[in-house]
Write a structure and sequence with these properties.
Strand 3 and strand 4 (74-77) form a beta hairpin. 47% of the residues lie in helices and 14% in strands. It has 40 helices and 22 strands. Strands 16-15-14-11-12-13-17 form a 7-stranded antiparallel sheet. Strands 5, 6, 7, 8, 9 and 10 form a 6-stranded antiparallel sheet that branches. Strands 1-2-3-4 form a 4-stranded antiparallel sheet, sandwiched between helices.
């Protein structure tokens, strides 16, 4: 047996990662979500130095051995997952980030063995071979041959005309594959983007011509690469795709500075994840871009300072004419946050200066596609022409048309901020914003890979000649910009090459010669004096909004007493969620506050959300508002001043029309009062059936109204009571036709709504009778039949038994009578009554009675329990919570005894488990964890662990709001 190498004394333990750093290395969102559910499954764990390890109980008897080498990071787990890192490694990192992994005196044996093997491999002598000059020369010959072939192909495309050329994926893939064979991957990648451009963009001739011109320029530069300055030579090689070994980069003289992390973006293309990190030197003012790649998952080194931190470190820049990409060198201390920017007194940070920096970089490296810009004290603005960032002097730069930087606008609120963005021919792509002393990420999670930038509008004569082909038309170069026209004498004599060279010069002239335009900044948003949501709670809320969490209602209920306002960066998410979630719309908008209202006023799809909210406080809304706004205004007035609402509605009633009339009348249901009776009686004569129906329903809730007295009289004439020794009979004598007074009171032949049948035909009298029973005060039936329990035991002809009970249920729900609700619920209501209505009856019972009823039911009544639980409020009473857990545990025991039995697996009860996760009191978490340990069925053990995790999550969620 081989003895593992002895581990050296551990170095100081690194600073625990943040949850965001853990999320950055997750291969996908589902792995991260699964990792969060494993919180209670760890048997042991520890950390020492850069080693992190633990045992996680899986579905088998043997726990998984999980190890993380934080110096890599590198991961090892005995689970069969093919994802890297797996959910167990992610869970271990999350526990470490939360401070739940204790420090250990020594590394566990299984972890020491693996870490020792890694050290042995790292310490093995470097057997890499020194590059063979003959091999390098052979590659150059191959590249040169491929580039010459590409140049001929480019000339053929332009000579015959782009309009006639084959722009299919197959055509471009053929020449791109040739570039791969020629070991020029940079050009192959550019070629593969063009068929998408040609098929999706209206300006494709300009873009394709510019791309062809850039390639021709690169090929021409490669021909003279030996005579080019070293920096330009390195740029040419990089754009073609020559490799640059990391060792060669690290041999470059390092640049030490306090590097501020201003931007971070992760993209994925064909399972290759790329992380791009923008750094800005606090002293030198230099830009640096650190690029990391990871295949299969976003598993990047975690030693990178977080967004908004700076590090005193050395960077080694890749050689080039406009050096930007770099590698980390030696660090000189831990990372720390920065809250200010250095003042550059030598040069004002204007838009013109930023454009000049870009022009200088483009002049040094004409193949650059983008360049970072840090724009200080700019205001984002949305105009009819598009998005811009503006400065106080009136200058403005366009934001790319593909961007919709609503979060940037929300953070700014019309006030100056500092924006980091990438500038190219399409405009500025905002990456982050610096405001109130912090860097806020603006990148979206769904950012994809490389896209071909839009080229600036070129010269129409050049594009026309390229479309037709130089064999048919030669452009007039004298019509180009004077600097380009003067350079025409030095261009190639061949018309095709002359066109490509002119297009390359034109493209560089336009991209490097951009000057600020003008745009009007928006008026600043009003201030909101309310306290901010605590940072941990805001971070959790952002994640819950993205995931559309079922815990959001509880979060808003807990936050309501504090009257918080959301961070400005969260307003976009809040408004997007308010657009689709009507139930939470009001608390979402309240949390967004004045900044959210200001932002929504500029967004076509959000404008109505806040306009209706604002309209409820405007007196002019009642006269001039849209129907929904008028209804909301009246609803608010009814809540604040019922008499004033009634007066307003009565005054405008003769002029009201359309469907809104019924909706306005329905507003009176809130705080219904006998003083509403005259208006409701007037509504009974309305021409619209929906208005009459609404009025009758409201009058039925006024037991002392004239309507109620008419219904009592009508019920007395339709029903006769016969009292026998053992029971009471209801004998019906229903009229053949309905008189005008009865129809005025809302009794109609609505056979569609009440589909009773008798002798295989619609039973119209039964439908009429149900309406009478529903509109009659319940006190009338109590006078005739005694208590509700006695009433439900009365006998009635079988034909009318269903209608009378349905009518009593209607009346009970309308009149909110708990005594009748109890009697009807306990009687089982002989019927096809929908479970929803039965649940509504149950909800009218006092909470102790509801709890007692459910606790009496055993596991054979799980379906009944699940159907009634929505009537139990939030959170469930403790006794009910313990009973539900016990019933689920009984199912788990049944599953362990008979795994093949139907209906015993957690999947058969997933809706009940989902309800339990939302409504169980958070104090039940220890009970769930204990029950999970007693489960012999792995699936149920995991289900109980998940419930415990959800309750821990909710508990933390509520604590963060304090």
């Amino acid at each position: 047996m081989t003895t593992p190498p002895t581990l050296p004394a551990p170095t100081a333990s690194p600073t625990p990662w943040t949850e965001a750093q853990v999320a950055a290395v997750a291969p996908d969102a589902s792995s991260l979500a699964s990792a969060r559910k494993l919180v209670s499954r760890w048997r042991e764990s520890g950390h020492r130095g850069t080693a992190l390890w633990g045992l996680c109980q899986g579905s088998g008897a043997t726990p998984y051995q999980t190890i993380v080498d934080l110096s890599g990071p590198a991961y090892r787990c005995s689970c069969p997952s093919r994802k890297f890192p797996c959910k167990h490694a992610l869970s271990l990192l999350l526990r470490w980030a939360a401070g739940e992994v204790p420090a250990a005196a020594q590394i566990a044996d299984y972890a020491a063995s693996w870490l020792g093997g890694r050290m042995a491999r790292a310490a093995a002598p470097d057997r890499s071979r020194t590059p063979n000059p003959a091999t390098a020369q052979q590659r150059r010959v191959r590249v040169t041959a491929g580039l010459e072939e590409l140049d001929v192909w480019l000339g053929d495309q332009v000579r015959t005309g782009l309009a006639q050329s084959d722009r299919s994926f197959r055509a471009f893939e053929a020449i791109a594959a040739r570039m791969v064979d020629a070991q020029a991957p940079g050009l192959a990648s550019a070629l593969r983007q063009l068929p998408t451009t040609a098929s999706t963009r209206s300006d494709w001739p300009d873009v394709v011509l510019c791309e062809f011109a850039r390639m021709h320029l690169l090929i021409a530069a490669h021909r003279q690469i030996d005579s080019a300055p070293p920096a330009l030579r390195a740029s040419i090689r990089t754009h073609i795709g020559y490799p640059t070994p990391a060792e060669a980069v690290r041999a470059e003289t390092p640049v030490r500075d306090r590097w501020m992390v201003f931007g971070l973006r992760v993209t994925e293309e064909e399972r290759l994840y790329t992380r791009r990190t923008w750094l800005h030197g606090r002293v030198t003012g230099r830009w640096a871009l650190v690029v990391d790649h990871s295949f299969g998952s976003a598993s990047f080194p975690a030693d990178l300072p977080a967004l908004g931190q700076l590090s005193d470190a050395e960077l080694h820049f890749y050689p080039g004419a406009a050096p930007l990409r770099a590698l980390w060198g030696e660090r000189h201390g831990p990372a720390e946050p920065f809250t200010t920017l250095p003042a550059d007194t030598d040069r004002p940070a204007t838009l013109a200066a930023a454009l000049a920096d870009h022009a200088a970089a483009l002049g040094a490296d004409p193949w650059l596609r983008s360049w970072p810009m840090l724009l200080v004290d700019v205001v984002p603005a949305r105009t009819e022409q598009g998005w811009y960032v503006t400065e106080s002097e009136g200058g403005a730069l366009p934001i790319r048309a593909a961007e919709s930087p609503w979060t940037l606008l929300a953070v700014s609120g019309g006030h100056p901020v500092t924006v980091l963005g990438e500038w190219n021919a399409d405009g500025l792509a905002p990456i982050s914003v610096f405001a109130t002393g912090e860097v806020i990420d603006l990148t979206r999670e769904d950012v994809a890979g490389h896209q071909t930038p839009r080229s600036p509008a070129g010269h129409a004569d050049l594009t026309s000649a390229a479309l037709l082909g130089t064999a048919r038309r030669t452009p007039d170069l004298a019509a180009l910009a004077p600097p380009i026209a003067r350079a025409a004498d030095h261009l190639s004599a061949d018309p095709t090459l002359r066109l490509l060279e002119s297009a390359a010069l034109q493209d560089l002239f336009l991209r490097g010669g951009v000057v600020p335009t003008s745009a009007t900044a928006p008026d600043p948003a009003p201030d909101d004096a309310r306290p901010l949501v605590p940072r941990p709670a805001a971070t959790r809320l952002a994640r819950m909004l993205r995931e559309r969490s079922a815990f959001l209602p509880e979060w808003f209920d807990a936050a309501a007493p504090h009257d918080y306002r959301a961070p400005d960066a969260l307003c976009e998410q809040l408004l997007e969620h308010a657009k689709v979630d009507a139930a939470l719309r009001e608390p979402l908008l309240r949390l967004a506050g004045t900044r959210g209202s200001w932002l929504a006023a500029q967004h076509p799809q959000w404008r109505d959300l806040t306009r209706r909210s604002a309209a409820t406080t405007s007196a002019d809304t009642w006269r001039f508002g849209q129907p929904p706004e008028r209804r909301d205004w009246l609803t608010r007035l009814r809540r604040d001043d019922p008499d004033a609402a009634r007066t307003q509605l009565a005054a405008s009633w003769p002029k009201e029309s359309g469907p809104i009339k019924s909706e306005l009348l329905g507003v009176l249901s809130d705080g219904l009062d006998p003083q509403d009776e005259p208006l409701l009686e007037q509504a009974l004569d309305d021409r619209r059936a929906d208005v009459r129906h609404t009025a009758a329903g409201l009058l039925a809730r006024l037991p002392e109204s004239a309507f109620a007295q008419r219904m009592r009289t009508r019920a007395n004439s339709w029903v006769r009571i016969e009292r026998r020794i053992r029971h009471t009979n209801l004998v019906l004598a229903l009229p053949e036709t309905l008189d005008a007074a009865t129809q005025r009171d809302g009794i109609t032949d609505r056979t569609v709504e009440f589909a009773y049948r008798w002798n295989a035909a619609p039973d119209v009298p039964a439908a009429r009778f149900r309406q009478v029973v529903a509109a009659t005060p319940l006190s009338h039936w109590a006078e005739l039949l005694g208590t509700p329990q006695q009433a439900v035991r009365a006998t009635v002809e079988e034909r009318f038994r269903q209608p009378v009970f349905d009518g009593w249920v209607d009346a009970t729900l309308a009149q909110r009578d708990s005594a009748w609700a109890r009697a009807l619920f306990e009687s089982g209501v002989p019927t096809d009554l929908a479970m929803l209505r039965r649940r509504e009856l149950f909800a009218l019972l006092p909470l102790p009675d509801r709890t007692a009823h459910l606790v009496r039911l055993d596991s054979s009544w799980l379906s009944e329990i699940e159907a009634l639980l929505p009537a139990m409020g939030h959170p469930w009473p403790e006794a009910l919570a313990q009973h539900v857990i016990l019933l689920l545990f009984e199912r788990a025991r049944a599953a362990a005894r008979r795994p093949e039995a139907h209906g015993v697996s957690p999947n058969a009860h997933r809706s009940l488990l989902a309800s339990a996760a939302v409504h169980l009191p958070v104090t039940a978490a220890p009970t769930l964890s204990a029950v999970a340990r007693r489960c012999d069925d792995p699936a149920w053990e995991q289900a109980f662990d998940q419930l415990a995790h959800d309750l821990h999550y909710r508990s933390m969620m509520l604590e963060e709001l304090q």
